[in-house]
C-alpha cells in the first residue's frame, strides 16, 4: 500500500492515532514511503442506536424515521441525527440504511421507500429483510439534496487538531457537491500553516457531484469515485458509464483518479469473485491511478491477501494497457501549442519508448514535472527524485520536499525518492552525476533498472529543461 486513509466516520482521534503509530513503525521497518489521507465525515446522516441492540427489519413492514434522538431505536422507530429529512423527501423516494454496504440485497443493510411524511417524521415501507447491528448506521437518501455543509464543524475540529498535528498529505472531502466545496476547504486548510501544502481529493458520492464534475475537477487535486454511495444514487446500469467518463477527464487533466469498492467479497472470503477481479482490471485499463480498499482492510478477515491479489490484478492489467493509443489521445487532447512543461514531459515519454528505456528519472522540487511525465502513462516506471528546498517563515528554517514526495505515491507509475538537500534540483552544469548515481543505485536496489539499461533523464540545466539519455550510470550521450 502507498497511502493510508484515516476515515473519521468511525473511531475517535485516539484510535486513529494508535493506527498512525503502527503505520510509522511499518514505514521505518520497511523503509518505504507511505502518505496519510484524512477522510472527512461530511454531511453524513446517521441512525442513532444508543442501546446497540440488534434491530431486525422485515420486508413489507413499516418503520418510522424520527429526528427525536431521545427515542429508543427499534424495529418500528429509528432516531436520526438530522431534523430536515421530512422537508427533503417525498413519497416514493428511496432511502438506504446500514452499517457498511448499501446494495439492497444484503442482510446488513435495508432498502426503504418513503410512503408518508408525518410532521418531522418520515414513514417508510421496508423493501428487504435485514438485521442492523451497532451504535450507528449510515442513512443515504438516494438523489436527495441534503442541506448541510460539506465540511462540518466536527471535520474542521479534526483537521485543525489531528490533521495539523500529523501533517496530513491528503484531505478526502466527502460528499463534494460543487467546486465551491473544494474552494471552501482549501481556504480553511490554507490558514493552518503546516497544511498549506495538503492536497484536496474530492469524493464524488452522488448525482449532484457528477453533475458538477467538470468544475469540481478543475478545483480539486484529485478525484475519488466513491462507488458505495454513488452506486445507490445512480441506477446500476449507469455506474460504469459515469466511472469511465470521470476517469478519462481526470487522465486528460493530469489529476489522479481513485476508485473504491472493488473486492467487497474479500471482507469475508480469501478470493475475489471473477466479476470483482475483472472490475479491478477494467479500472486499470480505463486509466485509474489508484484502488482504495476499505472494509476489506479495516474489518476484513484477509487484508494482506486482499492487497496482494488486487496488486497482482493491477500488474497484469498494466501489461496489456495500450500505451500507444493513450499517448496519442492525450497529445491530441492537450493540443498545440503545448506549454513548455507539457512539451518536455511528452518528449521524455516518447524518447523513453523509442529507445526502450527501463526507467525515466525526473529531478524536481515541486513534483509537478514528474506528475506531468506520469500523465502520459509511459510503459516504464518514473522515478521522481524530489530535491528539498530550504525555506523560512522568518522564525525558523526548514526543508520542503517530504510532502511532494509522499503526494507522488498516489500517481500511477510514479515512484518518489527524497534526495539529499545538498544536491541542487536545477543544476548549472551539464551533468549532475553524483545525484544521478544515487538515483540509479536506488533504481537498481528496487529492481527496476540494471547495469547498461537505457535511462531517460529529465532535469533543469540553468533555466533550460532538458531530456537526456544514458546507458551507463556516469555518462550521458
UniProtKB/TrEMBL annotation:
Keywords: ATP-binding, Glycolysis, Kinase, Magnesium, Metal-binding, Nucleotide-binding, Pyruvate, Transferase
Record InterPro entries: Pyr_Knase, Pyrv/PenolPyrv_kinase-like_dom, Pyrv_kinase-like_dom_sf, Pyrv_Knase-like_insert_dom_sf, Pyrv_Knase_brl, Pyrv_Knase_C, Pyrv_Knase_C_sf, Pyrv_Knase_insert_dom_sf
A matching Pfam family: PK
Pathway recorded for this protein: Carbohydrate degradation; glycolysis; pyruvate from D-glyceraldehyde 3-phosphate: step 5/5
Catalytic activity: pyruvate + ATP = phosphoenolpyruvate + ADP + H(+)
Gene3D superfamilies noted in UniProt: Phosphoenolpyruvate-binding domains, PK beta-barrel domain-like, Pyruvate kinase, C-terminal domain
Residues covered by the Pyruvate kinase barrel domain: 1-307
Keyword DNA-binding: no
Superkingdom of origin: Eukaryota
GO molecular function per UniProt: ATP binding; kinase activity; magnesium ion binding; potassium ion binding; pyruvate kinase activity
EC identifiers of the protein: 2.7.1.40
Keyword Metal-binding: yes
Swiss-Prot/TrEMBL cofactor(s): K(+)
Domain Pyruvate kinase C-terminal: 342-461
Family: Belongs to the pyruvate kinase family.
Record-linked PANTHER family: PYRUVATE KINASE (PTHR11817)
Identification of the protein by name: Pyruvate kinase
The organism of origin for this protein: Trapa incisa
Biological classification of the source: Eukaryota, Viridiplantae, Streptophyta, Embryophyta, Tracheophyta
Amino acid at each position: 500500500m502507498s497511502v493510508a486513509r484515516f476515515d473519521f466516520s468511525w473511531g475517535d482521534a485516539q484510535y486513529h492515532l494508535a493506527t498512525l503509530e503502527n503505520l510509522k513503525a511499518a514505514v521505518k521497518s520497511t523503509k518505504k514511503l507511505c502518505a496519510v489521507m484524512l477522510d472527512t465525515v461530511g454531511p453524513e446522516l446517521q441512525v442513532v442506536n444508543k442501546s446497540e441492540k440488534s434491530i431486525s427489519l422485515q420486508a413489507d413492514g413499516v418503520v418510522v424515521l424520527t429526528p427525536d434522538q431521545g427515542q429508543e431505536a427499534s424495529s418500528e422507530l429509528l432516531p436520526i441525527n438530522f431534523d430536515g429529512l421530512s422537508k427533503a423527501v417525498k413519497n416514493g423516494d428511496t432511502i438506504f440504511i446500514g452499517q457498511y454496504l448499501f446494495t439492497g440485497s444484503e442482510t446488513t443493510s435495508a432498502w426503504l421507500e418513503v410512503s408518508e411524511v408525518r410532521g418531522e417524521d418520515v414513514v417508510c415501507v421496508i423493501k428487504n429483510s435485514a438485521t442492523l447491528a451497532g451504535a450507528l448506521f449510515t442513512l443515504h437518501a438516494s438523489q436527495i439534496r441534503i442541506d448541510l455543509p460539506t465540511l462540518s464543524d466536527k471535520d474542521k475540529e479534526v483537521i485543525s487538531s489531528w490533521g495539523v498535528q500529523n501533517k496530513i498529505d491528503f484531505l478526502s472531502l466527502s460528499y463534494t457537491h460543487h467546486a465551491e466545496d473544494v474552494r471552501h476547504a482549501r481556504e480553511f486548510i490554507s490558514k493552518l500553516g503546516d497544511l498549506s501544502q495538503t492536497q484536496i481529493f474530492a469524493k464524488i458520492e452522488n448525482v449532484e457531484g457528477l453533475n458538477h464534475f467538470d468544475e469540481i475537477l478543475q478545483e480539486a487535486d484529485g478525484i475519488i469515485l466513491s462507488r458505495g454511495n454513488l452506486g445507490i444514487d445512480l441506477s446500476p446500469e449507469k455506474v460504469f458509464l459515469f466511472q469511465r467518463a470521470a476517469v478519462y477527464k481526470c487522465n486528460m487533466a493530469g489529476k489522479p483518479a481513485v476508485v473504491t469498492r472493488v473486492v467487497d467479497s474479500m471482507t469475508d472470503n480469501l478470493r475475489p469473485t471473477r466479476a470483482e477481479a475483472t472490475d479491478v482490471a477494467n479500472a486499470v485499463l480505463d486509466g485509474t491511478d489508484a484502488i482504495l480498499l476499505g472494509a476489506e482492510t479495516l474489518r476484513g478477515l484477509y487484508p494482506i491477501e486482499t492487497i496482494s491479489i488486487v496488486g497482482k490484478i493491477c500488474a497484469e492489467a498494466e501489461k496489456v494497457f495500450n500505451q500507444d493509443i493513450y499517448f496519442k489521445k492525450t497529445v491530441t487532447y492537450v493540443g498545440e501549442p503545448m506549454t513548455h512543461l507539457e512539451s518536455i514531459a511528452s518528449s521524455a515519454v516518447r524518447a523513453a519508448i523509442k529507445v526502450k528505456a527501463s526507467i525515466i528519472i525526473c529531478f524536481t522540487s515541486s513534483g509537478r514535472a514528474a506528475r506531468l511525465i506520469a500523465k502520459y502513462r509511459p510503459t516504464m516506471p518514473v522515478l521522481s527524485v524530489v530535491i528539498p528546498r530550504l525555506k523560512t517563515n522568518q522564525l525558523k528554517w526548514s526543508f520542503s520536499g517530504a510532502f511532494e514526495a509522499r503526494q507522488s505515491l498516489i500517481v500511477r507509475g510514479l515512484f518518489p525518492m527524497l534526495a539529499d538537500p545538498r544536491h541542487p534540483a536545477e543544476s548549472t552544469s551539464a551533468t549532475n552525476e553524483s545525484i544521478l548515481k544515487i538515483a540509479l543505485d536506488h533504481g537498481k536496489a528496487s529492481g527496476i533498472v540494471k547495469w547498461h539499461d537505457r535511462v531517460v533523464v529529465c532535469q533543469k540545466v540553468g533555466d533550460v529543461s532538458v531530456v537526456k539519455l544514458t546507458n551507463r550510470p556516469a555518462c550521458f550521450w
